[in-house]
Write a structure and sequence with these properties.
6-stranded antiparallel sheet
């Protein structure tokens, strides 16, 4: 087996170091943070992730370390931008909890057609935006009338925190000692036990009900099994 020369070992070490240093910010975000919303679809889309207990500057630096941007905006606790050749990443403070950050990863098509151009130029240089979005003389700024300034600017935007709080309100309340068991039919069986201590016996009743179309409470009727009377005479054989 032929041994590698020292030049070959150096070349391999350089390749491995480059591979180790190369990382995609989009993949890192999707692998480490929960997705809370998607705007648009396909090549004209934006994905929003929630970073809990981490402020905007810390999150922006973390992403820049994973993939070096072509340009990063100045440090801010409210909003920061990282510009790449294939995407625009905005890190913004979570409106539901200032301790959290929202990471919005947008395609260039989405950023160009949705973001307010003047707003973007407040964070990134005009020359970079022109090179990313194409056009000269400010032609890409045809979207200047747009008001979009990031996911947090949407009036109906919801974060994971807000969704969790909403889900708690929808949780049904239960009471100790009572409950209902229903089968696939119309019959409903009720168990009643007013004490908190389990008992070996209880009261069981089987009832049927008729559902009213006006939304009022159903009417319960107790079913009593019917019996037939027998008539006839009996003779004894001798």
């Amino acid at each position: 087996m032929k041994r590698l020369t020292w030049q070959a070992w150096v070349a391999l070490a350089l390749v491995f170091s480059l591979l180790a240093g190369c990382s995609n910010a989009s993949s890192y975000v999707s692998d480490h943070y929960p997705l809370v919303d998607i705007q648009g679809k396909g090549q004209d889309s934006s994905k929003i992730y929630l970073v809990e207990d981490q402020d905007v500057p810390t999150t922006a630096k973390e992403l820049a370390d994973k993939e070096k941007p072509e340009e990063v905006s100045k440090e801010s606790k409210d909003s920061m931008f990282l510009a790449y050749s294939d995407k625009i990443i905005q890190v913004q403070q979570d409106p539901a909890d200032s301790a959290n950050s929202l990471v919005e990863v947008s395609t260039l098509t989405y950023a160009k057609s949705h973001y307010n151009s003047s707003f973007l130029e407040g964070y990134l240089t005009a020359s970079l935006l022109h090179s990313l979005f194409g056009g000269t003389g400010g032609s890409w700024m045809s979207n200047g009338t747009n008001t979009y300034r990031g996911f947090s600017s949407l009036p109906d935007s919801k974060t994971k925190t807000q969704a969790y709080e909403s889900s708690k309100k929808d949780t049904p309340a239960t009471k100790s000692g009572t409950g209902f068991f229903s089968s696939k039919g119309k019959a409903k069986t009720e168990i009643t036990d007013k004490s908190d201590t389990p008992k070996s016996s209880g009261t069981w009743s089987t009832k049927s009900y008729s559902k009213k179309s006006d939304g009022s409470s159903p009417t319960f009727k107790t079913k009593i099994p019917k019996t037939k009377k027998s008539f006839g005479s009996f003779k004894r054989r001798r």
